[in-house]
Amino acid sequence: MKHFFTILSHEIRMLLVNPSTYIAAVAFLGLMGFVFTGILDTYSLAPQEASPAIVFFQYFYWPVLILVPLLTMKCLAEERRLGTIETLFTTPVNTVEVVLGKYSAAYSLYLGLWAATGGFFLILKKFSGGAHLLDPGPLIGGYLFIAISGLLFVAIGVLASALARNQAVAGIFAFSLLFALIFGGKYLVAAPWLLKTEILHPVHAAVAYGHVLGHYEDFTRGVVDLRQLLFYLSGTVLALIFSILSVEAKLLHS
User: Fold this and answer.
1) Which regions of the chain are under pLDDT 50?
2) C-alpha dihedral over 132, 138, 139, 144, to 10 degrees?
3) Using CA atoms, how far apart are residues 142 and 163, in angstroms rounded to an integer?
4) Which of 161, 149, 151 is nearest to 69 (CA)?
């Protein structure tokens, strides 16, 4: 792994000079700013029981569905289309270093953009004068959920890029996988045919285990379940392993 940091720094530089990165950043911050403004409007009209942080983070899936595909769709698919990935492997690097370097660069930028939303809460603290609006529990839990779940979300985006032939297909594929992961669990947990059929109860338990929206609710309440951490970490490792195997398979057949 001695070349990992070289690849990581190169990928971060490439992301920072890529116009799509700034398009994604503006879209992300604009969307979350619009959401935060709507929350403040609601709280200004009538007192609310829930902390603004709880309401803010419940919309995490919209930027995930937009931001992650934009950050990851070019990382492997575009290099394969241009033929530069074969040139990359003529240097003394291996597949693991390349995939992990690209993944870490995308994840770092993902975290950086979410960290920028902390400015919303700093502005709220400065001008609201209401300490009850900034309950640290939901705020810390929300950002912790963003950091941990982002490991898996970005890994899925990298996997989609490893499997696709071009960046457009990779972006659509990543969006589809993330949408299925986030909203598929919500549908299946409430599906009556899973609840009524006894033989399918283990399936329902497995779906509940991977229910992303349920995990968000636990984190913002200050409940950190080790099983949920295991879900995201194991899912991330599997997605990255499949990404590495996919790249190696395509190199053997190129």
Assistant:
1) none
2) 170
3) 31
4) 161
Could you tell me if 175 and 69 are in contact, meaning their C-beta atoms sit under 8 angstroms apart?
Answer: yes
DSSP string, 207-229: HHHT-HHHHHHHHHTT---HHHH
Which string of DSSP letters, residue by residue, matches 62-111? HHHHHHHHHHHTTTTHHHHHHTHHHHHTTSS--HHHHHHHHHHHHHHHHH
Give CB contacts under 8 A, 24+ apart, made by 242-245. Answer: 242/159, 242/162, 243/76, 243/99, 243/103, 243/155, 243/158, 243/159, 243/161, 243/162, 244/95, 244/96, 244/99, 244/162
Q: Where are the domains of the chain?
A: 4-252
Question: How does pLDDT run across 117-138, given as a tens digit for each residue?
Answer: 988 888 887 777 665 667 788 8
Phi (first) and psi of residue 166, to 5 degrees: -145, 170
The CA distance from 119 to 189, in Å, is 35
Quote the CA–CA distance of 183 and 112 in Å, as a whole number.
25
